[in-house]
Amino acid sequence: MAELTLVEAVQCALARAMAEDERVVLLGEDVADDGGVFRATDGLLARFGRERVRDAPLSEVVIAGASVGLAAAGFRPVAEIQFMGFMLSTLDQMVNHASRLRNRTRGRLTCPMVLRAPYGGGVHAPEHHSESMEALFAHTPGLRVAIPSSPSKAYGLLLAAIRDPDPVVFLEPKRLYRAYREPVEDDGAALPLDRCFVLREGGDVTLVSWGAMLKETLAAAEALAADGIEAAVIDVATLKPLDMTEIARSVAQTGRCVIVQEAPLTAGFGAEIAARLADENLFDLLAPIKRVAGWDTVMPLPRLEAHYMPDPARIVAAAREAMRHR
Amino acid sequence: MADAAPDVDFTLRRAIGPDGEVVGPLPDVASDREAVTALYRAMVLTRSFDEKAIALQRTGRLGTYASSLGQEAVSVGVAAAMAAEDVLLPSFREHGAQLQRGATPVELFQFWGGDERGNDFKGPRGDFPVCIPVSSQLPHAAGVALAMRLDGGGRAAVAVCGDGGASKGDFYEAINLAGVWELPLVTVICNNRWAISTPLARQTAAGTLAHKALAAGIDARRVDGNDVLAVRAVAAECLERARADSRPALIEAVTYRLGDHTTVDDATRYRDEAEVKEHWPQEPIARLRAYLVAQDWWAKEDETRLLKESAEEIAAASETYLALDPEPPTAMFDHLYETLPPALAAQRAALAGGTGGDG
């Protein structure tokens, strides 16, 4: 079994999907000869040719919009936007069209496309290269939003996204692209969408996160364990549609929940999870639900970036605060 | 062929004038009595549909509606040049093209009456429905054209936008993609001179809207959009190149919006009635009728019969539309995803059970 980084796992899943279904077509800026600015599509031009691996002109609108047309006409486009900061101009296409085409035509035209983009901070990038705006897409009915947290999740979730009959926004935590390797079997097995994953069981407090923040969250769980506090860690993985089953099950057990997100606090996706717990699990709770998030500020440039990113210490502090309630 | 320089022609192509007189080279179709009368019937049907739609809206039985009064030749001429396996991506004023393509008047009433089922065309299964965010259908059209190219070619996508739509980035981005990827895409600007209250003079400083093709390196044509024979010929020429050589083109069809922008608009607030009056003699239906009469192909009885048949067909469609049962409320969940995600099951059940869905 090969040891892959997250970005290699993305590439491996893309290659697998293209090999098994000739209607899978890649398009994006610099995805062909350059193999993508993060090399997620490296080697695919040589293997699958220029008709199926397409360098697009510098137009996010048309990359997303042409994908809608391609998908409606029977193909399975996988489009790459270089950074999430440049996805805002795709909102018109994703919110007004990709998410609605099936409903608008009562199933006559559908939109099985994937819009991929690296997101999140922590790599000392210029402005507009570090944002976490997953909540914008998670607020849109008709879309799926999937975020892998590891190489094996990236492989399995991306295969699932490409095979899904509906549009998926697939956000790749770029901070983890080359952070580490893990064994990933290229067996074509997809992971389920619309499901959370339990990364660690624990009976004292439930830590919920997604994407790169799971690194800090797992580190926090380790630190808590050293003090005898057993934290469960749940990887949301598919934010839209959100399946609360695992989160609710764990919170029913622990009575305490800390939600960790890199995005700014207010109206972030963590608020939805907190609201759902307050609605459906209030009487399981022993302590107030805590959120550890980015500040409600503009994502800083690299000099102040480290002061913005939630760290294990903040997560541990929030969990300890929750533990004060018995 | 694909490497050949763009073929641009900014002269206004015309075949017949306002009185049906021949003013330019007549296309072959002009000598085909059956084909010309078919174009005439299609335009008359479109206008009947338009009149009934407005009457239904005024009596509270249809939603906000965008009239195509005066622009029938663009819609009908373009659609008449299309093959069944081509794909139409309209804006929201191409009722004539949609009808010509096989969408039924019942389906169109249904859509404008606020029922998504109207977009589930039984006829042109690949055609896109009305697109409301202006020109955002043009990128889709580029994608559809790419799919056609990848599928081996021989078909073309046709997107229609308005003069205001040509000011959008989507417009340029789509025709630019079509140029650089050599896509079989024919983009039609239905230039009716008004984008709600904004006249063409305040929309662009470009010489003509067709000039915008130069920046994308694609073929360009201008045509009198009130002359259905010329529109059909220009569209056919561009479509043939698109199908045979994967050559994209931009067509500017110059027409005039004789009606309000929509049924909730009042054009007298911003547009001189005298200007509208000036354009009425240019309108496409009377023009083609004059041509038919001049060929001795059309008698008073033919006209009477056609108007009666058209009105009856549309009235019957209207009756059918008004008698349709509403969809169950849960339909709003049932077409959101192919399979309803478990996370949405509770909301759907709440709606189905009438409990309000607030848990």
Tell me what the structure shows.
The complex is a heterodimer of chains A (326) and B (359). In chain A, 36% of the residues lie in helices and 20% in strands. Chain A has helices at residues 6-20, 44-48, 60-72, 91-98, 101-104, 134-138, 151-163, 213-226, 245-254, 269-280, 302-308, 312-323; strands spanning 2-4, 24-28, 53-55, 76-80, 114-119, 144-146, 168-173, 182-184, 197-200, 205-209, 231-235, 238-240, 257-264, 290-294. In chain A, helix 1 (6-20) packs parallel to helix 7 and helix 3 (60-72) packs parallel to helix 4. Chain A starts with a strand and ends with a helix. The model of chain A has no long low-confidence stretch (mean pLDDT 97). In chain B, the strands form 2 sheets. Chain B has a 6-stranded parallel β-sheet, with helices on both faces. A two-stranded antiparallel sheet of chain B has the order 5-6. Helices cover 44% and strands 11% of the residues of chain B. By secondary structure, chain B is an alpha/beta fold. Chain B is built from 13 helices and 8 strands. Chain B starts with 7 loop residues before the first strand and ends in a 6-residue tail after the last helix.
